[in-house]
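Order emerges. One example.
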Amino acid sequence: MTLKQRIDADIKQAMLAKDKARLQALRGIKSLIMLAETEKGGTEGIDQATELKLLTKAAKQRRESAELYAQQGRADLEQIEMAELAVIEEYLPKQLDEGDLRIRLVEIIQRVGATGPSDLGKVMGVASKELAGQADGRAISQAVSDLLNNTDF
């Protein structure tokens, strides 16, 4: 079952359950998928990597909007963004915690033969591809930087 089919099925369930917040988030995801499909100009679906990028981007946008609303004291809008974020995260792969992220990054660093901070770009290229959707890019960058600056990993 493709992501689009899962979303369609979940939209029907949300409509039956009269869950407006979930329905709004699911419709937003479906809209992103449909826009990506029409951008390519074809009627064929999009691949899983593109789906993952779309969901990751949508989650990041919701997270940043919620932070902005929290800073402005708009708890009502922050709650809406957080509810939509929770729905989007259901379709993303499980996020790595900090310990697991560091373990995976140490493996990548050893595999590419990185020795210090000057190899940051080389490690980030591989890490970004392998850990796409499993960790935030900012968290990956920070952890790689820390590990490369402390070469006794």
About this structure: Residues 124 and 141 are 7 Å apart (CA to CA). The mean pLDDT is 88. The chain has seven helices and no strands. Residues 48-71 form the longest helix (24 residues).
